[in-house]
Structure of DYW domain-containing protein:
Amino acid sequence: MRLLTPQEAATLPREALETHIVSLLRRCPGLLALRGAHAHLLRLRLPRLTAAFALSKLLASCASISDAAAASSSYARNLFDQIPDPTAFCYNSLIRALPAAGPVLAAYRRMLRAGSPRPNSFTLAFALKACAAALAPAEGRQLHAQAFRQGLESGAYVQTGLLNLYAKCEEVALARTVFDGMAGDRNLVAWSAMIGGYSRVGLVNEALGLFREMQAAGVEPDEITMVSVISACAKAGALDLGRWVHAYIDRKGITVDLELSTALIDMYAKCGMIERARRVFDGMVERDIKAWSAMIVGLAIHGLVEDALGFFSRMLELKVRPNNVTFVGVLSACAHSGLVDDGRRYWSTMQNLGIKPSMENYGCMVDLLCRSGLLDDAYSFVIGMPISPNSIIWRTLLVASKSSNRMDIVESASKRLLELEPLNPENYVLLSNLYASNSQWDRVSYMRKKMKDNNVTVVAGRSSIEINGYLHKFVVSDDSHPEIKEIRPVLREIADRVRRAGHKPWTAAVLHDVGEEEKEVALCEHSERLAIAYGLLKTRAPHVIRVVKNLRFCPDCHEVAKIISKSYNREIIVRDRVRFHKFMGGSCSCKDFW
DNA sequence: CTAGGGTTAG
């Protein structure tokens, strides 16, 4: 577009000048461009009112520019301070441009203190969105109270803003309260936000149930709704459901856009159908870094290392810039097949690309070194990390030190782990099992004592299985399932077969502090066995029994699943959260851990 | 000027 000269600007009417300002700012993708436009507008020596208009519009543009939030937000603050009588629109724009919940709340309070203008529903909607993005429910609650005080709580946008805030912060019950309060005017956005909230925390049946309710209420889903539904299936490993939902998407002619495709790739990969994931990926018209990353991570999960690395180079050739998540895929692929040198090379590639390693990236490197038996390298790598290692990293190191019988590393790593997380039951399960398998009984009882002293109780093992589109959940020794009477005999038979197969009814040392005779009961009522029993009861071969388990350091569930598989001639896959041991060529089975 | 979506290590 042609820029105006000051002489031209002086002769133009106000409307024309404002049009010029608006279309000029529309062309500003980043902070630099915006500053350029700002300088141009200053040169025009606009009349007072038009200048204020320009500043407001400049401020509004700050929210949508892509530059580092910090730089653009301080620029936005500067602009705001230059506006003599900021309107509500100005405050709203400022709030939109601020990066964190704290500053947003401060700006909101400043507006209240000024007395005028009053916040409107836009103000609250923006502020709530900022709190949701920053995962700051405390600040959000304050805004919730404010919404009441300002009489703005009934606005549709404020309500969905609140709903979404709670949903994003995983406060599902609060989100539901808001949702229930909306009864009459729930629109597609509200339904989607609520479904997304359930999906985020893994309440798949609730997400799916609400999805059905939504349809019954005559609200037609769009691609955004379906992303949440599909990712709920991915989280739960609900393959049949996921396929049904995919078919539904096709049947309804819902656009499978970039985000939905990515969700589908993730779902198929996490549910074990990597070929379908790949087909979705191949069918995409555009692929951004998240799509590539989902695909690469999916391939890595399945141990398809060459493919994962091949996709990575193809991605680089297409000039798509990798991010931390991409390198999680690449590095974990290397770790899964012992490619230490390649892993190290990718590590420096990452640094050369200016990507600051995330905790997960460090974790991948530790895992890579550990799996290759380079315990000393792994240990010095952990010690040399510029950020303080988290508990996952210490546990990775511990498990590997145990397999290599490096009790010296176990010693110091366990110390650090318990300092870091003295209240996490997972750590005690891990450590006491570790010492038990090394016959260090004094250590085992020390762990128990420490647990007791710290008032730590063990997390129950939880598993789920999908039957006919419904997810059945089981907890250790849980008899609340409506069909428990039919499940029990199957369980007993499983226990018999396990014993006949010569499997020692050994179980986690602290998980069940029980006598010998009770041990077998505890063993046969492990959650995954309950789930497998239910699967045997409800399905016939060749239906694959897929069970999802919550605990990673579960001592023998995969081994037992294998025995049951063989004995019943059924395919049984036990998956812990995302990893399929079936595809790992044994490299990741519990046997190696313990 | 408002609200809902996808990828992360053990």
